[in-house]
Each structure stands twice: as C-alpha cells, then as structure tokens.
# Entry
Amino acid sequence: MTTLDLARQVDATCRIRGQFTLRSGRLADEYFDKYQFEADPVLLDALAAAMVPLVPVGTEVLAGLEMGGIAVVTALGRHTGLPCAFVRKEAKAYGTARLSEGAPLADRRVLVVEDVVTSGGQIALSTGQLRALGATVDHALCVIDRQEGGAAALADAGIVLASLLTRAELEASRG
# Structure
C-alpha cells in the first residue's frame, strides 16, 4: 500500500461529519477522530508496517505515549520485534507507581511513539521524564504530523520528529 493509499484510507476512516465542539470552543461540522485508525486492526497494521523504515537504527525500545501511542507502539513492536514501553502522562499513585510500564528504559536508546503530533508538547514533556529515568531519547515517530509547529518545538528540545503522514498529505489525498 502506498503512502497516498494510506492517507486516503486514514482520511476516509477518521474524518467524520456532524456537530462538534472543538477544544477551542469553536463549533465544527467535521472532526478528525484519530482513534478510528487505531481501532481498525487492519488499517493500524498497515500503518505500523509502513512506519518500520522510519525507526532509527540503534533503537532498543519503542515507548508509546498514553493513550493513542499505546495502540500504535504495540502494532509497531509487532513489525520491528522491538520491546515496548507504555508511558503514562504521570506516574500512578498506586501499585508499581511507575511512569512507564513494560520494557526497561534505563541506559537504552528509546524511540517515543505517538499517534498524532500537533504542538509536540506531550512528547517534549514525556521525553524529559524518560531522560530523567535514564533513557536516551533523541527521536520521536508519529503516524500524523498536523504541521502546527510540533516538529520545530521538538527540535528545540533536541528531538527529531519523523512522521508517516502529514496534514497536507491527508488533505491532498481527498483529490
């Protein structure tokens, strides 16, 4: 499946019509529901397979960010054979009280995986936390870059962002 085919399928699957209140409070008659591609096992598998060449050489652990990055990192781990870690927005206060579950991160080269990047804020925050746990993190990978400044903000934090698809590619796929 080509990148254009994937973009068409993601756009068709995720763009829904109706009446929606956006985070800004503005009303919209269409909405991009990113969880729809994560809930479709066939599409998610195709996206993960296409992301494999974007995983930097030397990566030892894939770290998926809560919530959308968890499904993506699990599918990507299946295709790469790399172990996965599941990163919370904050450490839970009970049980293991860990920020990250799954594969150990200390002294390992970790790739942060996210579903959609807008500002890059959560990746930057989580990367700082993972670095404090001893992980080496200098790359992030997402399915979709909304092209709203996230890549530049992450570069300022010492993180190189790669994306499978961009907002422009999704829009161009509509023909």
Observations:
- The helical segments are 3-14, 35-38, 41-51, 68-80, 121-132, 150-156, 167-173.
- The mean pLDDT is 94.
